[in-house]
Amino acid sequence: MFLNLRYFVLPLMLCITLLLSACETTTTPDKWWEVPGTTPQARGPAPETYDPTALPRSGSEIPPWDPSQPVTVQQPDAQVKAEEWMTQYDVRGGLRAARVGLLVPLSGSAANVGREILNAAQLALFDFAGPHYELLPYDTKGTPEGAVRAAQYALADGVSIIIGPLLSQSAQAIAPYLEAANVNALAFSNDSNAASQNVFVMGIRPEEEVERIINFAALQGSQRFALLAPADEYGIRIRAAFEQAVQANGAQVSKVVQFLSSSDDLPALIRDMADYDQRRQDLLEQKRELAGKSDELSKKALDRLELLQTVGDVDFDALLVAAGGQTLQAIAANLPYYDVDPKKVRILGTSLWEAKWVHAEPALLGGWFAAPSPKNRSEFVEQYRSVYKEAPHRLATLAYDAVALSAVLADDKGEADYSRATLTDPAGFLGRTGIFRLHQWGLAERGLAVLQVQSKGFREISPAPQSFAPITN
């Protein structure tokens, strides 16, 4: 059940109006880690643009909003249209309602995900919406231009809050219009760069996953950490969070290796990271020394060395592998090949590991990764499957939580408080992905669990927190 620690759930009721907007389509580069349905493969940067020491980039610059311009999002009749809609054209006779705009791609390349988001939104309506609550969907067509047009329509229709859009570029594109209209948005993106004065990033950010898993590993005794991540924007963000978390735990960054997915050098990078050549040479030298001796002790020692690839340990006791899909499979195959022993090195990951085939990789068995607790999401998955006869996309859960939050904050008189102060209640909220709260700087903080890879599934070895209350002894 979705609860605010200070609110009660409103009676069940549904009132939904569909309004689809027509928008122009344009092709823009997407960030692979937040693109629905794509295989999480690392993409290399453009030639001569990658700086391995750089912090996460700030994203595309948005032209500053000119306060001298009308605040009706460049539609002079927007306020008039909103008033007409609320009074003259309300088929229910002018009843006041809390109006919420849902910006989703109902056409274009991400239309399937948009449909699942809309399905989840309707489930939340059935569970939480009161008699004076309206959800108005608008088609973004999966492009920033489409999102801007959809946001303009939504604001002209008098919405009090916007849920969506899906991707960070779209969220950044609508930010000036939201600021001008003083309307907040709960975007589905997990890109920190999309956060702004009126845009909250609802997605589960990679930085949070890194912080959670590094904190847990350090608590279990890991002290020397290595990182294996792609050399793209995602990898840069992962690296910054990794180094900060290791430092915060008083541990040591042993090695950082970043790779291009288009490169054939991944095995060579892992070989170098593991000091394989030196450790192999040390083994051969020891075997040569023992081969010239005839005593029984030397013979037994030589027999033991015949079973080894190398001697000595790698200079890290925990390795964070921030990859998924075929890249993760290639890494999992090369780690044991170059004698990175999972009995001595704890293999760590992110939510990109959450795939069924991971259980079949011996090198990943016993590994840990951070992700939302499956227990929190399982009830929603069953509910969704029972209604729509298919499993929901992972982003559908975020949509359910966002719509449920907007419904809980609306009263039975059509009044709703979607102010920044209310949305950033420090007590937080409990949703299908677990607890979360929104911060003034536009990012969501979530309570994540730590899962362990086992042969038949994932086991939750460190539960997600149940509240944001300070931990006391």
From TrEMBL:
Biological process, per Gene Ontology: amino acid transport
PROSITE patterns per the UniProt record, alphabetical: PROKAR_LIPOPROTEIN
Chain coiled-coil ranges: 273-300
Domain Leucine-binding protein: 99-454
SUPFAM superfamilies assigned to the protein according to its UniProt record, in alphabetical order: Periplasmic binding protein-like I
Keywords on record: Amino-acid transport, Coiled coil, Signal, Transport
Positions of the UniProt region annotated as Disordered: 33-72
UniProt cross-references to CDD domains, sorted A to Z: PBP1_YraM_LppC_lipoprotein-like (cd06339)
Range of residues in the leader sequence: 1-22
Pfam families, per database record: Peripla_BP_6
Transmembrane spans: none
Family: Belongs to the leucine-binding protein family.
Name the UniProt record assigns to this protein: Penicillin-binding protein activator
Source organism of the structure: Terasakiella brassicae
Lineage of producing organism: Bacteria, Pseudomonadati, Pseudomonadota, Alphaproteobacteria, Rhodospirillales
